[in-house]
Amino acid sequence: MASVSTGNAPAIFDLKSATLPLLAVVLRTFDLKALEVELEARISASPDLFNQDPVVIDLAPLREQGASVDFEALVALLRRYKMAPTAAKGGSPEQMAAALALGLVEAPDLSPVGTTSAESRAVPEGSAAETSDAEDARDSEGSRHWSAPATATVIVDKPLRSGQQVYARGGDIVVLAAVNFGAEVIADGNIHVYAPLRGKAIAGARGNTEARIFTTCLEPELVSIAGIYRTTETAIPAEVAGKAAQIRLVGEKLVMEPLKL
Questions:
Q1: 149 and 169 Cβ atoms separated by less than 8 Å
Q2: 23-106 with 119-258: one CATH topology?
Q3: How far apart are CA 156 and CA 75, in angstroms?
Q4: Which CATH code for domain 119-258?
Q5: How would you write the pLDDT of the chain (261 residues) with one tens digit per residue?
Q6: How many whole angstroms separate alpha carbon 7 and alpha carbon 28?
Q7: Domain ranges of the chain
Q8: Which CATH architecture has domain 23-106?
Q9: What's this model's pTM, rounded to 2 decimal places?
């Protein structure tokens, strides 16, 4: 989208398309006390797992049950565990109305990678500007995050520090250096890390269940494929811990297997 300006004066801001990968909290119960117990069990072992990361509240499992959700209490609970609820999706009309009334936005259902719909093939307006910004950010040591043009493979040859995030929109990501604790690599496709993977790796960010994660040294804080995730709260199997491994999705279970290099 073009910059907004008045006359010949230089623009003081730009409006651009922004595709952001978000984790979804899939809500399967109305019992927030039970949810709090589960959050404490899963996240307390990894206190730095979230750092005010935006999340989507997925209400699809509760849609047909018809009961109301106490969004004020739910949002407060998630914020207590350093999540920042920004949107909701999948609920009944009544549930979604309650979410919007609290200030959450309605998240669109994104098509999985590999779809052949005309909409998903279209090149979004402003994509050329995003590509340029991505290249500039890749050269910046202080950059917080960058994204790649659709269908591109992102190659990162420098270590990723805590707080840095790389997102391969519509494609794969290849990292040739360490992904340190607190760093994130996200791809709509596969993730390849030819070095220690110690931060977060999120593959199939838009629902691609065929995506995989590969690394020569598996030591992650969190791994996720198509929304199914696993944290350090569950110990990594000894046969792959600190070793070359691949992670794939079988049904709704993440399977970790050693790689023979």
A1: yes
A2: no
A3: 35
A4: 2.160.20.70
A5: 444 545 566 778 776 655 566 678 888 899 999 999 988 877 776 666 777 888 899 998 998 887 889 999 999 999 998 889 999 999 999 999 999 999 999 987 643 333 322 222 222 223 232 333 333 333 333 444 444 444 578 999 999 998 888 888 889 999 999 999 989 999 989 999 999 999 999 999 888 899 999 999 999 999 999 888 888 778 899 999 999 999 999 988 999 999 987
A6: 53
A7: 23-106, 119-258
A8: 2-Layer Sandwich (3.30)
A9: 0.55
Tokens of 186: 């996200």
Q: Which residue has the tokens 């590969």?
A: 214
